[in-house]
Structures are given as structure tokens and as C-alpha cells.
Design a protein that fits this description.
Helix content of chain A: 25-40%
Number of strands of chain A: 13
Number of strands of chain B: 18
Oligomer: heterodimer
Order of helices and strands of chain A: EEEHEHEHEHEEEEHEEEH
Cofactor (chain A): FAD
Organism (chain A): Panicum virgatum
Largest sheet of chain A: 9 strands, mixed
Family (chain A): Belongs to the ETF beta-subunit/FixA family.
Distance between the termini of chain A: 58 Å
Strand order of the largest sheet of chain A: 9-8-7-10-6-1-4-5-11
Strand content of chain B: 25-35%
GO biological process, one term (chain A): amino acid catabolic process
Helix content of chain B: 25-40%
Order of helices and strands of chain B: HHEEEHEHEHEHEEEEEEHEEHEHEHEEH
Radius of gyration of chain A: 21 Å
Distance between the termini of chain B: 49 Å
Structural class of chain A: alpha/beta
GO molecular function, one term (chain A): electron transfer activity
Strand content of chain A: 25-35%
């Protein structure tokens, strides 16, 4: 069985983003970019399933500009076998929406015929939390979103997924092929070692375009403006618990 | 609002009537007609879904709202009665009674939304961005070939929305320019459920949904096994008026008990930072932040929480924020209304003495 993992290049999670003065988006020039943290977890899970004998091959895919190849190299350095890069340079006013990404990934999945597709539950830039669900819907495959544990049964062609839901953990069982999206708790991604980073340079990245895949990219969303969130007014540092209780009772009136 | 909707009548066709009755769809568009996909528990519509009704009202005051409820058993029908009298704009309650929908499995639920939308041709489909809504809505949107908007915090026009991006560090205003329906998940803390009392005479009719779309293909591919829930007596984290949160500074699961006691005394819910969850002090579903729950209580008290970007994303809209931390440079103090630079255990002890148990 083959596992397809979708990865996204985003502004590094530790960067404090700045809104561009013209309000068209956030500043991404000269900002550190990394693999989306949830995607790292997806890659790690695919590798662990392969190492446990659940899969024969792990293929990483991304959609993005030329620089997104770096993100694929990271996945290859972690241990993915090969990669597919769908080249697309988005217009900032009309960003590539999860629906378009899902359509492209469906086309990739129909070519690669994986038994499982693993994605992150959300990208930390657009915070959409949609692509995996949409891909599953388009493929008519079952979905296991916000996974915190995945067990594969190769014999029965089933995956048991523990999901992080409001109020607890839900367990569901999916027929393969299926789509799984990762929650933070699924695993602790490995670091790529220097020898593996060197090895990754010789692994194959296949380049395609959405046109090659016959996917029509339509954008139904127009970004009108991007603003800074309202600033909270400066708070005060108090000196005692009594003062705090007094403020909460008499000034803020919340107790 | 109606004029605005007319002027914006761009694109073509609508919903399930896409080609066959474009005229009908266009005449429908003048009036927003929203489908609210609601969750229920114990015979009542959940508060987060009542917030989705408030969002539907914010789209257009003269809109008609249909509420979709699914599941099986008496609790479903009791919840339907609740939904029928939950909001003055509710014009219809659709009840999908089937074992296949008893658990929130995305496959049959997405088919349900698809089928109901095909018949109803709604201009908007709204769910709350709970784990239920986030799981289903994008799948249903893909079946309908439309792009949904996640986590809407404000509605400026029927198709213009504000949503946070980059963990709430930027607010993005987007305009949906696609075909009907305009699908969205709303952040429930941004929309207060209506509190006006409904008169008995304004009870909306309850209709059973035709479930012939449910086939072996849609319900056979996934099965629900179980739900391990964290039983708690305290209020629901996402809707609590007061939230007390602990971070790594609490040092152990046993120390979290102190926080739980304070929560008890205040009638508050307990939250946690990712560090506290990862260290195993509390279960994951208490995590507040970009990847956990988004809360906006009247009072948020953070003990031993440094205030990482991802944590602030989940609580920055709280009305009053109190931070207790030894580290005067902790970023949490930049958003706190009241800060105490002190040992949290001493502060907790004193608070427990001075805020007695209300019971």
C-alpha cells in the first residue's frame, strides 16, 4: 500500500506576523517559512505506518510556487520516498482555496492510487480546516479528521482512528482507502539528520501543473482587506490578591 | 439589506436548482434563506447552534431560517420542539431521523446536507465551528462544489465576512463570489444567542426529511465505535462565563486540583495551555488555543501560562483577562487587564480562602 501525504509551506509558527501596510495580506517576503506543523505530523505518521509494515511507500505532495520544493525536500529528508510538486503561483488577492487544493489532490490521488491520504487538520496561515474533508468528499472516501491515534489493519483493509472531538476522544473505523487529518497529539515528528538531508537531494520530485492534471482552479473568494486585530488596552500589574479581588468586583464587575 | 442583496446578485444559478430553474433561484436570492445545521444534546439544541441562529439573523433580518437536526430517538424529537421555538426567524425545523445519523459521522451527514440543500436551494448554510461542524461542513461543501468560509467572527454583508487568520494575528475580510449556497462555520463566541422570549404561537412547523438518499454506499464506509468523554460537573469550556486556565507553571496533575477547586468556587470551567496538556496534567479537550478551543468568557484567569501566540489565539477576545505568573516578562501580561507577578501557588491559596464555595 502507498500513503500520500499533503504538505504545505507556511510562515513559521514562531514568527509574529505583520499585516502589510496596504492591507492586502500579511508580510511574507523575507519571513522564515517552514512546513506547516500539522503536515509534519502527517509525514511522521506516514513514515511510522511504513516502518510498522503498514505501507510500502510514502509519497509527499505539495501545491505552491517554486520555493515549495524546499518543503518537499524536508519531507524527503524525514524519510518520504518521493514527491510530487504541483506548481502554482497564487495571486495574493485570490489565494488558492482549499476546494481547489482538494481538487488537485484528488487528481494526484487518482494517479498515485494510495490506500491512505494523510493531511494536517489545518494550515496555521489560513486556519481553514477544510482540505482533508473536501478531498474525502470529492473521492467519496471515508474521513478520519483530527486524529490522535491511527491503527491500520492491512488484512481487513480498515483503519481505526481515535479523533479529538469536543468533550473527549471518539473512535471510528474506516474502510480503506480513506483520508485522515492529524491533530497535534498524534505523534512527535522526527528531525531530519544531516545524512538524510543529503540523501533527500537525490530523491525524485516530479513537477506537474494543475493544467497537466486537468484541474480548473476557480476562486470564489475575494480578499477585501486584511487588518490587525484590535489592540487590547494596556493592563495594570497589581501588587496583591486583595487588590485583584477588589478590581474584579468593583472595577470590572465580573465577580 | 434586500437592495444590497439584489445589487450583489452576481454569478449565476443557485444551489441545487443550478440549471433547471435559475429564475426561481434568483428570486429566492432576494431573501436570505438559511439552513442552520444544528447539534443537540439531552433534548435541547446546543448553545453553539443557537449562536449559529444568531449568525443567520445577522445575515438578514427578514431571512427565513430552517434548522436541520439529525439523530434518532426521543431526544431528537424533543430537541426539534426546542428548535421550533428557539428563534423568531425559524420558519421550519427539518428532522432527519435515522440510526445512520445517530453519531456525527461525516459521510452520511454530508450526504444529508447535500440532499437538503438540493431540495431547499438555501442561500446560506451555517454551522457552528465545533468539532462536529468542522468535520461535516467542508465535506458537504465539496459535494456541492462550493467554497465554505471557516470560523466567521463578523458578518458585514450577506456575503462579506470577517474571519481570523494566522492564529488570530490578522483579521481577513472576504467576499464570497461563488454560487449558492454560501456555506460557513461561525465562531460561536462571536454571536450571542437571542434571549428574547418566544411566544407559544410562533412555533415553527417540524418536517421529516426524506432519507431515501441514504444508501449502503454512504453509510457503509465508516462506523462509529465509541466516545470516551471527560465527565465533568463544571460548565462547558466553550460557553462558560468564567474560565480558569493552568499552564506549565502548575507543575503537576495534582496541582491542577487546586485550580479545579477555584473553578468550583467560581462556577467556572477549567482550561489548559498546550504545555499543560502535553505534560499530561489534564486531558486534551481542555486545551485553549489555535488548535484547541476558542473561548471568550467574561473573565479569563491564566495561572502559570506564558502566553504563546497559539494560546492567545484561543482567548484574546475574553472580556477581562487576569494573568498570574512569576515571570514579569511573560507575553501573557501584554494582553492581561490585571496582572500579578507572583508565585501562582501562593495566589491560588489566597484566592481559595477569599472566594468561598458558592454551594
Amino acid at each position: 500500500m502507498k500513503i500520500l501525504v499533503a504538505v504545505k509551506r507556511v510562515v513559521d509558527y514562531a514568527v509574529k506576523v505583520r499585516v502589510r501596510p496596504d492591507r492586502t495580506g500579511v508580510e511574507t517576503a523575507n519571513v522564515k517559512m517552514s512546513m506547516n506543523p500539522f503536515c509534519e505530523i502527517a509525514v511522521e505518521e506516514a513514515l511510522r505506518l511504513r516502518e510498522a509494515g503498514g505501507a510500502a511507500e510514502v509519497v509527499a505532495a505539495t501545491i505552491g510556487p517554486t520555493q515549495s520544493a524546499d518543503t518537499l525536500r524536508t519531507a524527503l529528508a524525514m524519510g518520504a520516498d518521493r514527491a510530487v510538486h504541483v506548481l502554482h503561483d497564487p495571486d495574493p488577492a485570490r489565494p488558492l482555496l482549499p476546494l481547489a487544493v482538494a481538487k488537485i489532490l484528488r487528481a494526484v490521488a487518482l494517479q498515485e492510487k494510495p490506500g491512505l491520504v494523510i493531511l494536517g487538520k489545518q494550515a496555521i496561515d489560513d486556519d481553514c480546516n477544510q482540505t482533508g474533508q473536501m478531498l474525502a468528499g470529492l473521492l467519496q472516501w471515508p474521513q478520519g479528521t483530527f486524529a490522535s491515534k491511527v491503527l491500520l489493519d492491512k488484512e481487513k483493509q480498515k483503519a481505526t482512528v481515535e479523533r479529538e472531538v469536543d468533550g473527549g476522544i471518539e473512535t471510528i473505523c474506516l474502510d480503506l482507502p480513506a483520508v485522515i487529518t492529524t491533530d497535534l497529539r498524534l505523534n512527535q515528528p522526527r528531525y531530519a539528520t544531516l545524512p538524510n538531508i543529503m540523501k533527500a537531494k537525490s530523491k525524485v520530485i516530479k513537477k506537474v501543473t494543475p493544467e497537466d492534471l486537468n484541474v480548473d482552479i476557480r476562486s470564489d473568494m475575494e480578499v477585501i482587506e486584511v487588518n490587525e486585530p484590535p489592540k487590547r488596552k494596556a493592563g495594570v500589574i497589581l501588587s496583591s490578591v486583595d487588590e485583584l479581588l477588589d478590581k474584579l468586583k468593583n472595577e470590572a464587575r465580573v465577580l | 439589506m434586500v437592495v444590497g442583496a439584489l445589487r450583489r446578485g452576481s454569478g449565476h444559478g443557485g444551489g441545487g436548482f443550478r440549471c433547471s430553474s435559475r429564475l426561481l433561484a434568483q428570486s429566492l436570492r432576494r431573501f436570505a434563506s438559511s439552513l442552520v445545521v444544528a447539534e443537540h444534546e439531552g433534548g435541547f439544541v446546543k448553545p453553539s447552534s443557537l449562536s449559529a441562529l444568531a449568525a443567520a439573523e445577522a445575515i438578514a433580518k427578514e431571512s427565513k431560517i430552517s434548522v436541520l437536526l439529525g439523530g434518532s430517538g426521543p431526544a431528537l424529537h424533543k430537541a426539534a420542539d426546542h428548535a421550533a421555538s428557539s428563534h423568531p426567524l425559524v420558519s421550519e425545523v427539518l428532522v432527519a431521523d435515522s440510526e445512520a445519523l445517530a453519531h456525527p459521522l461525516a459521510e452520511p451527514w454530508a450526504e444529508l446536507i447535500h440532499s437538503v440543500q438540493q431540495k431547499g436551494g438555501y442561500s446560506h448554510v451555517i454551522a457552528s465551528s465545533t468539532s462536529f461542524g468542522k468535520n461535516l461542513l467542508p465535506r458537504a461543501a465539496a459535494l456541492l462544489d462550493v467554497s465554505p468560509v471557516t470560523d466567521v467572527t463578523a458578518i458585514k454583508e450577506p456575503r462579506v465576512f470577517v474571519r481570523p487568520i494566522y492564529a488570530g494575528n490578522a483579521l481577513c475580510t472576504v467576499k464570497y463570489t461563488g454560487e449558492d449556497p454560501c456555506m460557513m462555520s461561525i465562531r460561536s463566541t462571536s454571536f450571542s444567542p437571542t434571549t428574547e422570549a418566544m411566544s407559544e404561537t410562533k412555533v415553527a412547523p417540524i418536517t421529516q426529511v426524506d432519507l431515501s438518499f441514504l444508501s449502503e454506499g454512504t453509510i457503509g464506509k465508516s462506523t462509529w465505535v465509541n466516545l470516551t468523554s471527560q465527565d465533568t460537573e463544571r460548565p462547558d469550556l466553550a460557553n462558560a462565563r468564567v474560565v480558569v486556565t493552568g499552564g506549565r507553571g502548575l507543575k503537576s496533575a495534582a496541582n491542577f486540583k487546586l485550580l479545579e477547586q477555584l473553578a468550583e468556587n467560581l462556577g467556572a470551567a477549567v482550561g489548559a495551555s498546550r504545555a499543560a496538556v502535553d505534560a499530561g496534567y489534564v486531558p486534551n479537550d481542555l486545551q485553549v488555543g489555535q488548535t484547541g478551543k476558542i473561548v471568550a468568557p467574561e473573565l479569563y484567569m491564566a495561572f502559570g501560562v506564558s502566553g504563546a501566540i497559539q494560546h492567545l489565539a484561543g482567548m484574546r477576545d475574553s472580556k477581562v483577562i487576569v494573568a498570574v505568573n512569576k515571570d514579569a516578562d511573560a507575553p501573557i501580561f501584554q494582553v492581561a487587564d490585571y496582572g500579578l507577578v507572583a508565585d501562582l501557588f501562593e495566589v491560588l491559596d489566597e484566592l481559595l480562602k477569599k472566594i468561598p464555595d458558592k454551594k
